[in-house]
Amino acid sequence: MAAAVVGEGDARQLKLLGMWASPFAHRVRVALQLKGLEYEHVEEDMGNKSELLLASNPVHKKVPVLLHGDSPIPESLVILEYLDDAFPGAGRQAILPADPYRRAVARFWAAYVDGKLHGMMLNALLGATEEERAAGTADTLAALDKLEGAFAECSGGKKEFFAGDEPGYLDIVLGGFVGWLRAWDKVGGVKLLDAGRIPRLTAWAARFAELDAAKEVTPDPDRIAEYARVLLARRAAAAAASE
Amino acid sequence: MAAAVVGEGDARQLKLLGMWASPFAHRVRVALQLKGLEYEHVEEDMGNKSELLLASNPVHKKVPVLLHGDSPIPESLVILEYLDDAFPGAGRQAILPADPYRRAVARFWAAYVDGKLHGMMLNALLGATEEERAAGTADTLAALDKLEGAFAECSGGKKEFFAGDEPGYLDIVLGGFVGWLRAWDKVGGVKLLDAGRIPRLTAWAARFAELDAAKEVTPDPDRIAEYARVLLARRAAAAAASE
C-alpha cells in the first residue's frame, strides 16, 4: 500500500486485479458496475501471480486489489467502503445505507459472511476428512438459515434486496458468493439454495444474478464445478506431498 | 440486532456490554472516551452471560455490544464505524481519517489485526501442542514486524500515532491489544514489545497506554497474566473432558 494519494472523486485510472472464480473479486466488479465506474480488469493467474499483484498486496498476495492511480487497495470490504468514500457522487446510489444503524447492521452481516460463511464453505469443500466436510456442510446450511433471517430483518420482508428496492452493500457482499451457492449441488453434492428451506434467500439469489451489474460476472455453475475439481485435485496433491 | 433506529447524534442511553480483559471491548471504551461520549458500562461475566448480552448478540454471544437506546450493535469494528457515523460532531476528532485512501489503509490494517494477529496470539497462548504454540509465537512476532512497518507507513515515521499527532482508528484497534502485548512476557514467556526489535511499535504502545482515554481501561499486566492462567486451566479441563 504505497503512499501516493489520488484526488477525491477522480475516477480515471481504476484498475482491478481480479480472478473470475473469486467471490471477493466478483463483489468488487458488481460494485464498480453499480457505481457506474469505468475500470480496467486484469485477470490474475493465481498459480502464477503477477508482479503487480505481489507488489500491490505484499501482506496477503490475494485478489482483489483495486488500483486507483498508483494507490493499491486490497481486501474487498475495504474496497467497497473506499468506493463510497472516494466516489460519493458516482452511480445511482451509494453502496452503504445512509442511516448509521442500517450501516452497522449491514456491516455486521458482511463480517459474518466473510468471517463465518466463507470458512464454512471452504471446510465443506476442502475439509481434510469426510467428517470435517460434513460438519462444514451442516455449518453452511445453518449460516444460510441465519442469513435468511437477516434478509427478513434488513429488507423488512417486503423488499427485493437486503438494502431495499435496490441492491446495496450486503447484497453485493453476499452476492459475490451467488455463483458458488448456485453451483453447490455440482460442487458439494448439496443444494444450498433450496426454496423449501430458505425461500427468501433463494429468490434473492435469483434476482441478484439477473442484475445487469451481476449478469456478466457471475460465473456459470458448470465452470465453478470444474474449478472446484481443480481445487480438490490440488489439495489431494498437496496432502500426498506432505505425507 | 432489533430494528429500532435511534435518531442520529442522540448520545443519550449509550450502554456498553464489555469485559475488562477483552481487547475488543477495550478498544470501544477508548473510542467512547476519545469521542467524549458518556456511557454506562456493564461488565459481563463470560462464564455466565447476561440475558441482555444473549438477546443483543444472538449470533456470536460475545462482547462488546454497544446499545444505543434499544438498538444493539455488536462487533467492535462495526461499533467504531457507528460512533463516527452516528456522532459525527462528537469529541475532539473523528475516529477514522477523513481522506478516503488513508481510511482504506487504516481499515486494511485493522482487518489484519483482527483477522491475523488475534488468531496468532490465541495460537501462541492456547495452541493444543507445544509446536502449535511455538508456531503461534513466531507468527505473532512476524505480524508485529509487519505492524512496525505499517506504523512507519501510516505515520510517515515522524508522528506519535498511526493516525498522526493524535490517536485514531488504527491506534484504537491495535490499542485494545496493548494490555495483552505488555503482559506477554508473563503470559507466554516472550517479550513481544521489544524496543530492540520493533522500536516504533514499542514506543507507540507506551504512548498509547498513557493516554487519558486508555489509562483507566488498559489492564494491568499481572491481572492479564492471572487471567491467562485461568484460560489455560479451562483449556486443559476441556481437553481432559473430551478425551
UniProtKB/TrEMBL annotation, chains A, B:
It is an enzyme of class 2 (transferase). It is found in: Cytoplasm, Cytosol. Residues 99-231 form the GST C-terminal domain. Residues 12-91 form the GST N-terminal domain. Its EC number is 2.5.1.18. It catalyses: RX + glutathione = an S-substituted glutathione + a halide anion + H(+). It comes from the Eukaryota. InterPro entries: Glutathione-S-Trfase_C-like, Glutathione-S-Trfase_C_sf, Glutathione_S-Trfase, Glutathione_S-Trfase_N, GST_C_Tau, Omega/Tau-like, Thioredoxin-like_sf. The keyword Transferase applies. One of its GO terms (cellular component) is cytosol. One of its GO terms (molecular function) is glutathione transferase activity. Pfam families: GST_C_2, GST_N. Keywords: Cytoplasm, Transferase. GO terms for biological process: glutathione metabolic process. Is involved in the conjugation of reduced glutathione to a wide number of exogenous and endogenous hydrophobic electrophiles. Belongs to the GST superfamily. Tau family. This is Glutathione S-transferase. The lineage of its organism: Eukaryota, Viridiplantae, Streptophyta, Embryophyta, Tracheophyta.
